Amino acid sequence: MTYHFDFAPIWAHRDLLIAGLARTVAVSAVLVIALLLGIVVGTLAAARRRLWRFAATGAVEMTRNVPLLIHMYLWYVGLAFLRLPPFLCAVLGLAIYSAAYVAEIVRAGIAAVPHGQSESALALGLTRFRTLRFIVYPQALRIVAPSLASLFSQLIKDSSLASVITVSELSFAASAIESDTFRSFEIYITVALIYLMLVMAASRLVLLLPGAHRPLLRVRFADA
Amino acid sequence: MPEVILRNLPFLLQGLALTLSLATLAAAGGTALGVVVAAVRYGGVKLAAPLLAAYVEFMRGTPLLIVLFICYFALPALLGYKASAFGAATLGFILFTGAYIAEDIRAGLAAVPKGQIEAGLASGLRPREVLRLIVLPQALRAAIPMLFNQYVRLVKFTSVASVIGVHELTGDAMLVNARDFAPITILATIAATYLVCCSLISLAGRLLYRRLGAPA
Is any Cβ of chain A less than 8 angstroms from the Cβ of B24? Predict the structure, then answer.
Protein backbone atom coordinates (compact mmCIF):
# COMPACT_ATOMS: atom_id res chain seq x y z
CA MET A 1 0.00 0.00 0.00
CA THR A 2 1.50 3.28 -1.08
CA TYR A 3 -1.38 5.50 -0.05
CA HIS A 4 -0.52 8.44 2.20
CA PHE A 5 -3.33 9.50 4.46
CA ASP A 6 -3.81 13.24 4.68
CA PHE A 7 -6.80 14.62 6.51
CA ALA A 8 -5.53 18.21 6.46
CA PRO A 9 -7.39 19.16 3.23
CA ILE A 10 -10.61 17.84 4.76
CA TRP A 11 -10.12 20.01 7.83
CA ALA A 12 -9.40 22.97 5.57
CA HIS A 13 -12.84 22.50 3.98
CA ARG A 14 -14.68 22.06 7.27
CA ASP A 15 -16.96 25.05 6.54
CA LEU A 16 -18.37 23.20 3.50
CA LEU A 17 -18.96 20.10 5.60
CA ILE A 18 -20.72 22.07 8.32
CA ALA A 19 -22.95 23.85 5.79
CA GLY A 20 -23.71 20.46 4.20
CA LEU A 21 -24.52 18.94 7.57
CA ALA A 22 -26.91 21.80 8.32
CA ARG A 23 -28.63 21.24 4.96
CA THR A 24 -28.88 17.50 5.62
CA VAL A 25 -30.52 18.20 8.98
CA ALA A 26 -32.91 20.62 7.26
CA VAL A 27 -33.88 18.02 4.64
CA SER A 28 -34.29 15.40 7.35
CA ALA A 29 -36.84 17.62 9.06
CA VAL A 30 -39.31 16.35 6.45
CA LEU A 31 -39.83 13.60 9.00
CA VAL A 32 -42.55 15.87 10.42
CA ILE A 33 -44.42 16.05 7.08
CA ALA A 34 -43.92 12.34 6.51
CA LEU A 35 -45.32 11.57 9.96
CA LEU A 36 -48.42 13.74 9.51
CA LEU A 37 -49.16 12.40 6.02
CA GLY A 38 -48.35 8.84 7.03
CA ILE A 39 -50.61 8.92 10.09
CA VAL A 40 -53.57 10.02 7.95
CA VAL A 41 -52.95 7.44 5.23
CA GLY A 42 -52.09 4.69 7.73
CA THR A 43 -55.28 5.33 9.68
CA LEU A 44 -57.28 5.11 6.46
CA ALA A 45 -55.48 1.85 5.63
CA ALA A 46 -56.70 0.45 8.95
CA ALA A 47 -60.25 1.79 8.47
CA ARG A 48 -63.31 -0.43 8.42
CA ARG A 49 -64.63 0.96 5.14
CA ARG A 50 -63.24 -1.23 2.38
CA LEU A 51 -63.01 1.70 -0.05
CA TRP A 52 -60.69 3.64 2.26
CA ARG A 53 -58.63 0.56 2.92
CA PHE A 54 -58.14 -0.29 -0.75
CA ALA A 55 -57.36 3.30 -1.74
CA ALA A 56 -54.85 3.81 1.07
CA THR A 57 -53.12 0.44 0.67
CA GLY A 58 -52.92 0.92 -3.09
CA ALA A 59 -51.38 4.36 -2.72
CA VAL A 60 -48.85 3.06 -0.20
CA GLU A 61 -47.80 0.14 -2.39
CA MET A 62 -47.45 2.34 -5.46
CA THR A 63 -45.33 4.86 -3.58
CA ARG A 64 -43.15 2.37 -1.75
CA ASN A 65 -42.24 0.23 -4.73
CA VAL A 66 -40.81 3.07 -6.78
CA PRO A 67 -37.19 4.07 -6.06
CA LEU A 68 -36.67 7.30 -4.13
CA LEU A 69 -34.45 8.62 -6.91
CA ILE A 70 -37.42 8.37 -9.31
CA HIS A 71 -39.59 10.25 -6.80
CA MET A 72 -37.05 13.06 -6.76
CA TYR A 73 -36.63 13.07 -10.54
CA LEU A 74 -40.40 13.21 -10.85
CA TRP A 75 -40.50 16.60 -9.13
CA TYR A 76 -37.19 17.88 -10.46
CA VAL A 77 -37.27 16.64 -14.06
CA GLY A 78 -40.82 15.42 -14.65
CA LEU A 79 -42.52 18.54 -13.39
CA ALA A 80 -39.66 20.81 -14.46
CA PHE A 81 -42.16 23.30 -15.90
CA LEU A 82 -43.18 24.15 -12.32
CA ARG A 83 -39.61 25.36 -11.77
CA LEU A 84 -39.58 24.23 -8.14
CA PRO A 85 -36.26 24.84 -6.37
CA PRO A 86 -34.19 21.64 -5.96
CA PHE A 87 -34.50 21.77 -2.18
CA LEU A 88 -38.30 21.70 -2.41
CA CYS A 89 -38.16 18.84 -4.95
CA ALA A 90 -36.02 16.81 -2.56
CA VAL A 91 -38.35 17.59 0.33
CA LEU A 92 -41.46 16.59 -1.65
CA GLY A 93 -39.90 13.38 -2.96
CA LEU A 94 -38.52 12.32 0.40
CA ALA A 95 -41.68 13.28 2.31
CA ILE A 96 -44.03 11.32 0.07
CA TYR A 97 -41.72 8.30 -0.17
CA SER A 98 -41.20 8.16 3.61
CA ALA A 99 -44.87 8.84 4.32
CA ALA A 100 -45.67 5.54 2.61
CA TYR A 101 -43.39 3.75 5.08
CA VAL A 102 -44.88 5.67 8.01
CA ALA A 103 -48.36 4.71 6.81
CA GLU A 104 -47.41 1.04 6.76
CA ILE A 105 -45.98 1.30 10.30
CA VAL A 106 -49.07 3.16 11.56
CA ARG A 107 -51.40 0.62 9.97
CA ALA A 108 -49.54 -2.24 11.62
CA GLY A 109 -49.50 -0.37 14.94
CA ILE A 110 -53.25 0.22 14.88
CA ALA A 111 -53.86 -3.40 13.96
CA ALA A 112 -51.76 -4.48 16.94
CA VAL A 113 -54.02 -2.67 19.42
CA PRO A 114 -56.69 -5.16 20.52
CA HIS A 115 -60.14 -4.55 19.01
CA GLY A 116 -61.76 -4.61 22.44
CA GLN A 117 -60.03 -1.33 23.26
CA SER A 118 -61.73 0.75 20.60
CA GLU A 119 -65.00 -1.14 21.02
CA SER A 120 -65.15 -0.31 24.71
CA ALA A 121 -64.21 3.29 24.02
CA LEU A 122 -67.04 3.61 21.50
CA ALA A 123 -69.40 1.86 23.91
CA LEU A 124 -68.48 4.43 26.55
CA GLY A 125 -69.65 7.13 24.19
CA LEU A 126 -66.38 8.47 22.87
CA THR A 127 -66.53 9.76 19.31
CA ARG A 128 -64.57 7.98 16.59
CA PHE A 129 -61.94 10.71 16.60
CA ARG A 130 -61.55 10.70 20.38
CA THR A 131 -61.28 6.92 20.41
CA LEU A 132 -58.36 7.18 18.02
CA ARG A 133 -56.82 10.14 19.75
CA PHE A 134 -56.98 8.93 23.36
CA ILE A 135 -57.21 5.14 23.16
CA VAL A 136 -55.72 3.75 19.95
CA TYR A 137 -52.89 6.13 19.01
CA PRO A 138 -51.12 6.21 22.40
CA GLN A 139 -50.97 2.42 22.55
CA ALA A 140 -50.01 2.10 18.89
CA LEU A 141 -47.24 4.69 19.29
CA ARG A 142 -45.62 2.67 22.04
CA ILE A 143 -45.68 -0.43 19.85
CA VAL A 144 -44.26 1.25 16.75
CA ALA A 145 -41.71 3.57 18.41
CA PRO A 146 -38.73 1.34 17.51
CA SER A 147 -39.91 1.11 13.87
CA LEU A 148 -40.28 4.89 13.75
CA ALA A 149 -36.76 5.26 15.10
CA SER A 150 -35.34 3.07 12.35
CA LEU A 151 -37.48 4.88 9.78
CA PHE A 152 -35.96 8.19 10.84
CA SER A 153 -32.43 6.87 10.45
CA GLN A 154 -33.44 5.46 7.06
CA LEU A 155 -34.76 8.89 6.10
CA ILE A 156 -31.51 10.62 7.06
CA LYS A 157 -29.52 8.18 4.93
CA ASP A 158 -32.01 8.56 2.07
CA SER A 159 -31.61 12.34 2.19
CA SER A 160 -28.16 11.82 0.63
CA LEU A 161 -29.93 11.27 -2.71
CA ALA A 162 -30.92 14.95 -2.68
CA SER A 163 -27.34 15.61 -3.79
CA VAL A 164 -28.21 14.02 -7.14
CA ILE A 165 -30.69 16.82 -7.84
CA THR A 166 -28.06 19.41 -6.80
CA VAL A 167 -29.15 20.07 -3.21
CA SER A 168 -25.90 20.99 -1.47
CA GLU A 169 -26.24 18.71 1.55
CA LEU A 170 -23.57 16.57 3.15
CA SER A 171 -22.99 14.11 0.27
CA PHE A 172 -22.90 16.98 -2.20
CA ALA A 173 -20.29 18.74 -0.04
CA ALA A 174 -18.33 15.47 0.05
CA SER A 175 -18.26 15.23 -3.75
CA ALA A 176 -17.31 18.89 -4.02
CA ILE A 177 -14.42 18.49 -1.59
CA GLU A 178 -13.36 15.26 -3.30
CA SER A 179 -13.09 16.89 -6.70
CA ASP A 180 -11.23 19.81 -5.15
CA THR A 181 -8.66 17.86 -3.13
CA PHE A 182 -8.65 14.30 -4.62
CA ARG A 183 -8.49 12.93 -1.06
CA SER A 184 -11.33 10.54 -1.89
CA PHE A 185 -10.76 8.00 0.86
CA GLU A 186 -10.41 10.55 3.66
CA ILE A 187 -13.44 12.60 2.68
CA TYR A 188 -15.85 9.71 2.14
CA ILE A 189 -14.83 7.98 5.35
CA THR A 190 -15.26 11.25 7.25
CA VAL A 191 -18.70 11.82 5.78
CA ALA A 192 -19.70 8.21 6.41
CA LEU A 193 -18.80 8.63 10.08
CA ILE A 194 -20.75 11.90 10.28
CA TYR A 195 -23.81 10.09 8.90
CA LEU A 196 -23.26 7.26 11.36
CA MET A 197 -23.28 9.66 14.32
CA LEU A 198 -26.29 11.51 12.94
CA VAL A 199 -28.23 8.26 12.52
CA MET A 200 -27.40 7.07 16.04
CA ALA A 201 -28.48 10.41 17.51
CA ALA A 202 -31.67 10.44 15.44
CA SER A 203 -32.88 7.02 16.49
CA ARG A 204 -32.46 8.03 20.14
CA LEU A 205 -34.26 11.31 19.46
CA VAL A 206 -37.40 9.58 18.17
CA LEU A 207 -37.70 7.66 21.42
CA LEU A 208 -38.03 11.00 23.21
CA LEU A 209 -41.43 11.50 21.54
CA PRO A 210 -44.02 11.98 24.27
CA GLY A 211 -45.43 8.60 25.17
CA ALA A 212 -42.84 6.68 23.21
CA HIS A 213 -40.60 6.03 26.18
CA ARG A 214 -40.40 2.59 27.66
CA PRO A 215 -41.32 0.89 24.39
CA LEU A 216 -42.82 -2.59 24.59
CA LEU A 217 -40.29 -3.93 22.12
CA ARG A 218 -36.54 -3.99 22.28
CA VAL A 219 -34.95 -1.02 20.51
CA ARG A 220 -32.39 -1.48 17.77
CA PHE A 221 -30.47 1.52 16.55
CA ALA A 222 -29.48 2.36 12.98
CA ASP A 223 -31.95 -0.22 11.75
CA ALA A 224 -34.14 -0.62 8.64
CA MET B 1 -47.32 2.38 -25.51
CA PRO B 2 -46.15 5.94 -26.10
CA GLU B 3 -44.05 6.50 -29.17
CA VAL B 4 -40.99 7.76 -27.30
CA ILE B 5 -40.84 4.53 -25.27
CA LEU B 6 -41.37 2.29 -28.32
CA ARG B 7 -38.60 4.02 -30.23
CA ASN B 8 -36.14 3.60 -27.34
CA LEU B 9 -37.41 0.21 -26.23
CA PRO B 10 -34.24 -1.81 -27.04
CA PHE B 11 -32.12 0.72 -25.17
CA LEU B 12 -34.41 0.76 -22.13
CA LEU B 13 -34.62 -3.05 -22.11
CA GLN B 14 -30.83 -3.15 -22.05
CA GLY B 15 -30.98 -0.91 -18.99
CA LEU B 16 -33.56 -3.17 -17.39
CA ALA B 17 -31.34 -6.19 -18.05
CA LEU B 18 -28.42 -4.43 -16.36
CA THR B 19 -30.64 -3.46 -13.41
CA LEU B 20 -31.78 -7.04 -12.99
CA SER B 21 -28.30 -8.53 -13.32
CA LEU B 22 -26.92 -6.01 -10.82
CA ALA B 23 -29.74 -6.85 -8.42
CA THR B 24 -29.28 -10.60 -8.91
CA LEU B 25 -25.52 -10.49 -8.37
CA ALA B 26 -25.93 -8.30 -5.30
CA ALA B 27 -28.74 -10.47 -3.90
CA ALA B 28 -26.69 -13.65 -4.29
CA GLY B 29 -23.46 -12.10 -3.00
CA GLY B 30 -25.19 -10.18 -0.23
CA THR B 31 -27.05 -13.25 0.99
CA ALA B 32 -23.87 -15.34 1.02
CA LEU B 33 -21.97 -12.60 2.84
CA GLY B 34 -24.84 -12.05 5.27
CA VAL B 35 -25.06 -15.75 6.15
CA VAL B 36 -21.30 -15.97 6.76
CA VAL B 37 -21.21 -12.78 8.84
CA ALA B 38 -24.23 -13.85 10.91
CA ALA B 39 -22.78 -17.33 11.45
CA VAL B 40 -19.38 -16.01 12.54
CA ARG B 41 -21.01 -13.56 14.95
CA TYR B 42 -23.36 -16.30 16.20
CA GLY B 43 -20.40 -18.58 16.85
CA GLY B 44 -18.64 -15.76 18.69
CA VAL B 45 -15.36 -16.29 16.84
CA LYS B 46 -12.63 -14.27 18.60
CA LEU B 47 -11.47 -11.10 16.82
CA ALA B 48 -13.63 -11.79 13.75
CA ALA B 49 -16.96 -11.38 15.55
CA PRO B 50 -16.37 -7.85 16.92
CA LEU B 51 -14.79 -6.76 13.63
CA LEU B 52 -17.83 -7.96 11.69
CA ALA B 53 -20.13 -6.27 14.21
CA ALA B 54 -18.33 -3.01 13.48
CA TYR B 55 -18.70 -3.63 9.73
CA VAL B 56 -22.45 -4.21 10.11
CA GLU B 57 -22.95 -1.07 12.21
CA PHE B 58 -20.87 1.04 9.81
CA MET B 59 -22.77 -0.13 6.72
CA ARG B 60 -26.16 0.33 8.32
CA GLY B 61 -25.36 3.85 9.45
CA THR B 62 -24.01 5.00 6.09
CA PRO B 63 -26.06 6.06 3.06
CA LEU B 64 -25.84 3.76 0.04
CA LEU B 65 -24.62 6.68 -2.06
CA ILE B 66 -21.56 7.09 0.18
CA VAL B 67 -20.88 3.34 0.10
CA LEU B 68 -20.94 3.47 -3.70
CA PHE B 69 -18.60 6.48 -3.69
CA ILE B 70 -16.23 4.61 -1.38
CA CYS B 71 -16.23 1.58 -3.69
CA TYR B 72 -15.85 3.63 -6.86
CA PHE B 73 -13.46 6.40 -5.79
CA ALA B 74 -11.95 5.73 -2.37
CA LEU B 75 -11.06 2.02 -2.37
CA PRO B 76 -9.40 2.09 -5.83
CA ALA B 77 -7.36 5.13 -4.73
CA LEU B 78 -6.42 3.43 -1.49
CA LEU B 79 -5.49 0.06 -2.93
CA GLY B 80 -4.30 1.26 -6.31
CA TYR B 81 -6.58 -0.52 -8.76
CA LYS B 82 -8.90 0.72 -11.49
CA ALA B 83 -12.59 0.08 -10.85
CA SER B 84 -15.28 -0.22 -13.49
CA ALA B 85 -18.56 1.44 -12.59
CA PHE B 86 -20.42 -1.87 -12.76
CA GLY B 87 -17.79 -3.68 -10.68
CA ALA B 88 -17.77 -0.95 -8.04
CA ALA B 89 -21.57 -0.92 -7.91
CA THR B 90 -21.71 -4.70 -7.54
CA LEU B 91 -19.16 -4.61 -4.71
CA GLY B 92 -20.96 -1.73 -3.02
CA PHE B 93 -24.36 -3.40 -3.19
CA ILE B 94 -22.98 -6.71 -1.89
CA LEU B 95 -21.26 -5.01 1.07
CA PHE B 96 -24.32 -2.83 1.77
CA THR B 97 -27.01 -5.50 1.47
CA GLY B 98 -24.80 -8.09 3.19
CA ALA B 99 -24.84 -6.04 6.38
CA TYR B 100 -28.64 -5.78 6.45
CA ILE B 101 -29.08 -9.45 5.58
CA ALA B 102 -26.60 -10.40 8.32
CA GLU B 103 -28.87 -8.66 10.84
CA ASP B 104 -31.98 -10.38 9.46
CA ILE B 105 -30.33 -13.78 9.68
CA ARG B 106 -29.04 -13.00 13.15
CA ALA B 107 -32.64 -12.43 14.21
CA GLY B 108 -33.53 -15.78 12.63
CA LEU B 109 -30.65 -17.51 14.40
CA ALA B 110 -31.67 -16.03 17.74
CA ALA B 111 -35.14 -17.48 17.27
CA VAL B 112 -33.90 -21.08 17.14
CA PRO B 113 -34.47 -22.63 20.59
CA LYS B 114 -31.36 -23.46 22.66
CA GLY B 115 -32.67 -26.98 23.28
CA GLN B 116 -32.15 -27.83 19.60
CA ILE B 117 -28.44 -27.03 19.83
CA GLU B 118 -28.06 -29.00 23.04
CA ALA B 119 -29.92 -31.94 21.53
CA GLY B 120 -27.71 -31.79 18.43
CA LEU B 121 -24.52 -31.73 20.48
CA ALA B 122 -25.81 -34.47 22.76
CA SER B 123 -26.46 -36.73 19.76
CA GLY B 124 -22.79 -36.46 18.80
CA LEU B 125 -22.81 -33.77 16.09
CA ARG B 126 -19.88 -31.39 15.97
CA PRO B 127 -20.67 -27.71 16.71
CA ARG B 128 -20.12 -26.87 13.05
CA GLU B 129 -22.55 -29.58 11.97
CA VAL B 130 -25.14 -28.39 14.46
CA LEU B 131 -24.92 -24.93 12.90
CA ARG B 132 -25.06 -26.18 9.32
CA LEU B 133 -27.63 -28.96 9.67
CA ILE B 134 -29.91 -27.79 12.47
CA VAL B 135 -29.69 -24.09 13.25
CA LEU B 136 -29.06 -22.39 9.88
CA PRO B 137 -31.84 -24.13 7.91
CA GLN B 138 -34.42 -23.03 10.46
CA ALA B 139 -32.99 -19.52 10.72
CA LEU B 140 -33.00 -19.09 6.94
CA ARG B 141 -36.59 -20.23 6.66
CA ALA B 142 -37.66 -17.84 9.40
CA ALA B 143 -35.79 -15.03 7.66
CA ILE B 144 -37.46 -15.49 4.24
CA PRO B 145 -39.87 -12.53 4.55
CA MET B 146 -37.08 -10.20 5.70
CA LEU B 147 -34.74 -11.47 3.00
CA PHE B 148 -37.26 -10.71 0.28
CA ASN B 149 -37.80 -7.26 1.77
CA GLN B 150 -34.10 -6.70 1.29
CA TYR B 151 -34.31 -7.93 -2.32
CA VAL B 152 -37.11 -5.46 -3.03
CA ARG B 153 -35.06 -2.67 -1.50
CA LEU B 154 -32.11 -3.81 -3.56
CA VAL B 155 -34.00 -3.51 -6.85
CA LYS B 156 -35.05 0.02 -5.93
CA PHE B 157 -31.55 0.88 -4.75
CA THR B 158 -29.95 -0.16 -8.05
CA SER B 159 -31.30 3.14 -9.41
CA VAL B 160 -28.65 4.90 -7.32
CA ALA B 161 -25.93 3.15 -9.35
CA SER B 162 -26.78 5.55 -12.19
CA VAL B 163 -25.07 8.27 -10.12
CA ILE B 164 -21.66 6.59 -10.52
CA GLY B 165 -22.33 6.03 -14.21
CA VAL B 166 -23.80 2.54 -14.44
CA HIS B 167 -26.19 2.44 -17.40
CA GLU B 168 -29.02 0.68 -15.64
CA LEU B 169 -32.70 1.46 -16.14
CA THR B 170 -32.76 4.87 -14.42
CA GLY B 171 -29.53 6.05 -16.03
CA ASP B 172 -30.74 4.97 -19.47
CA ALA B 173 -34.11 6.61 -18.93
CA MET B 174 -32.46 9.91 -18.06
CA LEU B 175 -30.32 9.62 -21.20
CA VAL B 176 -33.41 9.01 -23.33
CA ASN B 177 -35.03 12.00 -21.65
CA ALA B 178 -32.02 14.18 -22.40
CA ARG B 179 -32.36 13.34 -26.07
CA ASP B 180 -36.12 13.16 -26.62
CA PHE B 181 -37.44 15.21 -23.69
CA ALA B 182 -40.62 13.52 -22.54
CA PRO B 183 -39.93 13.43 -18.80
CA ILE B 184 -43.36 12.49 -17.49
CA THR B 185 -43.90 9.64 -19.95
CA ILE B 186 -40.42 8.24 -19.40
CA LEU B 187 -40.46 8.53 -15.61
CA ALA B 188 -43.94 7.01 -15.40
CA THR B 189 -42.82 4.10 -17.57
CA ILE B 190 -39.76 3.23 -15.51
CA ALA B 191 -41.65 3.82 -12.26
CA ALA B 192 -44.20 1.26 -13.44
CA THR B 193 -41.38 -1.11 -14.39
CA TYR B 194 -39.85 -0.92 -10.89
CA LEU B 195 -43.32 -1.32 -9.40
CA VAL B 196 -43.91 -4.54 -11.35
CA CYS B 197 -40.45 -5.95 -10.53
CA CYS B 198 -40.81 -5.20 -6.82
CA SER B 199 -44.34 -6.57 -6.63
CA LEU B 200 -43.24 -9.80 -8.32
CA ILE B 201 -40.39 -10.23 -5.84
CA SER B 202 -42.72 -9.61 -2.88
CA LEU B 203 -45.15 -12.15 -4.32
CA ALA B 204 -42.37 -14.71 -4.82
CA GLY B 205 -41.31 -14.16 -1.20
CA ARG B 206 -44.82 -14.73 0.10
CA LEU B 207 -45.23 -17.90 -1.97
CA LEU B 208 -41.86 -19.26 -0.86
CA TYR B 209 -42.64 -18.51 2.77
CA ARG B 210 -46.00 -20.24 2.52
CA ARG B 211 -44.24 -23.23 0.97
CA LEU B 212 -41.28 -23.50 3.35
CA GLY B 213 -42.62 -21.49 6.25
CA ALA B 214 -41.20 -21.57 9.73
CA PRO B 215 -42.28 -24.81 11.41
CA ALA B 216 -40.69 -23.77 14.71
Answer: no
